Amino acid sequence: MGRSGGTSRKREELANFLRTRRSRLRPSDCGLSASPGRRRTPGLRREEVAVLAGIGTSWYTWLEQGRDINVSESVARAIGSALRLSPSEIRYLYQLLDINPPPYLRDAADPRALDLGSIVDEWMPSPALVIDSLWNLLAYNTSAAVVFGIVESEPNLLVSFFTNPAVRARYVDPLRTGRLAVAQFRTGAAARYDDPEFVRLVNGLRERSPEFAALWHSHEVVDACLKVKELDHPEVGSLCFDTQSWQLDGPDIRLFLHLPRRQSDTRAKLAHLLRVREPALVAGV
Length: 285
What we know:
Layout: H1 5-23, H2 46-53, H3 57-64, H4 73-82, H5 87-96, H6 116-121, E1 128-131, E2 137-140, H7 142-148, H8 157-163, H9 165-168, H10 174-189, H11 196-208, H12 210-218, E3 228-233, E4 237-247, E5 254-260, H13 266-277
Antiparallel strand pairs: 1-2, 1-5, 3-4, 4-5
Helix pairs in contact: 2-3, 2-4, 4-5, 7-13, 11-12
């Protein structure tokens, strides 16, 4: 039985898409030495893509020829990685192959399309920050940097907490904070278990932090986050914030807002910290 017109068209589009993505890459872009011999066309050769993806050259050639062959999700992911496809391109590849993409690729919002800087700055003088499902910092305001010790050189909250003693020391109960953080991270990142970025993050933390490794091994899972954050700031001492979080566009972007707890002196101390850091920011505190 022949293929339907729709399926045939998809395979033709797939073949053209793979060829154009391959043609824009050079061996050096992918860590390969140029193969000997004169290249007839620019870009990677089919056998080079096959090597990068860990699949057979003949099988990949058939795919570029538009043949009706079955492709698993893991192979599609490997081809996407070999061709250095963007998230949008990977989703398109999955559509052409009639494969359901993993959750972390479905309708993912592009944080660059959101004015995250304006969002967190509107919350000044209180701390506000935005993270993705891997706890990478997408945006934060000056108040958050001052309170939590955020530095541009370490843009991941988990990494900074478990590898930077100065950051960890700011929390009144770091053991409880770390346990809840890892349990909450596991819940939120479950959809990205096959994501190479997730694997690199977790493996790197397990190597660098025995505490993280033990907590990760415990496999604890929670949905709740810390509603109250108590800190021991090195300059002003005790700080206490009520914390709320909201999901922004897409499942991978969360906004955390911190409000100085009433009946505490946190607001006054925060004003002092900001006055020392940037006096213009404390108006209206």
